[in-house]
């Protein structure tokens, strides 16, 4: 990269309601069109006026966007449509070079294009919208699982196929085999995983922290716990439980997002260095050795703690501290 030139600053705005990996992928592509990415998060009122009330309030949406590793700055209360006035503010106050949006049409209630002015000014660039995921789709999956729970029809369960649920975590008793419920249209490719990865392993003396969980419907509580975990060391390895493990421990209707979707959301988080796509429920000695883990921060099963405490008595205090944090997260 040339050092002397001014960094190219790009702007992406959006609602980022019920943030998912499609949003993360949009931010990743936007960032690749410049050197610095500024994100405008639309205010609750503006969303309500243009497409109905958001599920997650502005402060949570801000946390989610700021946690994405490709984001450099976040502006709260962005307008839904880019007005002349706001565009000038972007250019003059925020030094923005380009305004970016996905290739889906973004229309205002009156049918006009929300990015018309930016396009006219020649400062608009487009990224490819991610197929297979949207807030609407996620809500649909949630509704489907509510319906299934109330009918309890296991025939229907087995006829509905969830993708990518095979081949992982076979150790878990699949008593919850009625879990093949949700249909994801997401096709994870190795390239997508590479795009989301950091590509850097831990340094030779790194203090490696391990945390595992379902991380279903990745939310502000998850971000907070990952931030705290990362602070305890130099490298944060996150184990994502298999779909079977999640179903077996949280009920057949979970997870809503499949293993690969959950892995991408966690990978996009700036506090995360690496993920294990399909982590075992038990943190074995082998795993600790293999990954050179210094500290396991964990809270879902008490049995593991005895082992962990024995292994690392000095770290007891921080484990306790972590436990309290975990309560916050496991409320989901
Ligand atoms: N976006 C994307 N792929 C998706 C969903 C959103 O690339 N599957 C992009 C949008 O094009 C936009 C940015 O993410 O540039 C912010 O999206 P948001 O304003 O939240 O838009 P929606 O399109 O409403 O997203 P969703 O339908 O998932 O709520």
From TrEMBL:
Pathway: Phospholipid metabolism; phosphatidylethanolamine biosynthesis; phosphatidylethanolamine from ethanolamine: step 2/3; Lipid metabolism
Keyword Nucleotidyltransferase: yes
EC number(s) per entry: 2.7.7.14
GO molecular function: ethanolamine-phosphate cytidylyltransferase activity
Residue span(s) of domain Cytidyltransferase-like: 11-140, 210-303
GO BP: any one term: phosphatidylethanolamine biosynthetic process
Keyword Transmembrane helix carried by entry: yes
Superkingdom classification of source: Eukaryota
Keywords on record: Lipid biosynthesis, Lipid metabolism, Membrane, Nucleotidyltransferase, Phospholipid biosynthesis, Phospholipid metabolism, Transferase, Transmembrane, Transmembrane helix
Name of the top EC class for this enzyme: transferase
Cellular component, GO annotation: cytoplasm
Region (Disordered): 153-180
Family of this protein: Belongs to the cytidylyltransferase family.
Name listed for the protein in its UniProt record: ethanolamine-phosphate cytidylyltransferase
Organism lineage: Eukaryota, Viridiplantae, Streptophyta, Embryophyta, Tracheophyta
Gene: LOC109728128
Part of the full-length chain shown: 65 to 396 of 396
């Amino acid at each position: 990269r040339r050092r002397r030139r001014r960094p190219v600053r790009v702007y992406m705005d959006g609602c980022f309601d019920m943030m998912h990996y499609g949003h993360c992928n949009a931010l990743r592509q936007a960032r690749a069109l410049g050197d610095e990415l500024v994100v405008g998060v639309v205010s609750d009122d503006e969303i309500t006026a243009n497409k109905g009330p958001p599920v997650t309030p502005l402060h949570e949406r801000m946390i989610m966007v700021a946690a994405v590793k490709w984001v450099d700055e976040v502006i709260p209360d962005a307008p839904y449509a880019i007005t002349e006035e706001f565009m000038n503010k972007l250019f003059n106050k925020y030094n923005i070079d380009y305004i970016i949006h996905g290739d889906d049409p973004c229309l205002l209630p009156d049918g006009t294009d929300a990015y018309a002015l930016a396009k006219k000014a020649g400062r608009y660039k487009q990224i490819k919208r991610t197929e297979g995921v949207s807030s609407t789709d996620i809500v649909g999956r949630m509704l489907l699982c509510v319906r299934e729970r109330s009918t309890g029809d296991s025939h229907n369960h087995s006829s509905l196929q969830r993708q990518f649920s095979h081949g992982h975590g076979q150790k878990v008793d699949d008593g919850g085999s009625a879990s093949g419920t949700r249909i994801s249209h997401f096709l994870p490719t190795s390239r997508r995983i590479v795009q989301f990865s950091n590509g850097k392993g831990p340094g030779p003396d790194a203090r490696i922290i391990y945390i595992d969980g379902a991380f279903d419907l990745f939310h502000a509580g998850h971000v907070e716990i990952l931030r705290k975990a990362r602070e305890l060391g130099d490298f944060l390895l996150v184990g994502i439980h298999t779909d079977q493990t999640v179903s077996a421990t949280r009920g057949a209707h979970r997870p809503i997002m499949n293993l690969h979707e959950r892995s991408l959301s966690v990978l996009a988080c700036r506090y995360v260095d690496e993920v294990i796509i399909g982590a075992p429920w038990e943190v074995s000695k082998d795993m600790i050795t293999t990954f050179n883990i210094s500290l396991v921060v964990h809270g879902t099963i008490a049995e593991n703690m005895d082992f962990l405490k024995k292994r690392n008595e000095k770290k007891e205090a921080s484990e306790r501290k972590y436990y309290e944090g975990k309560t916050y997260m496991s409320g989901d």
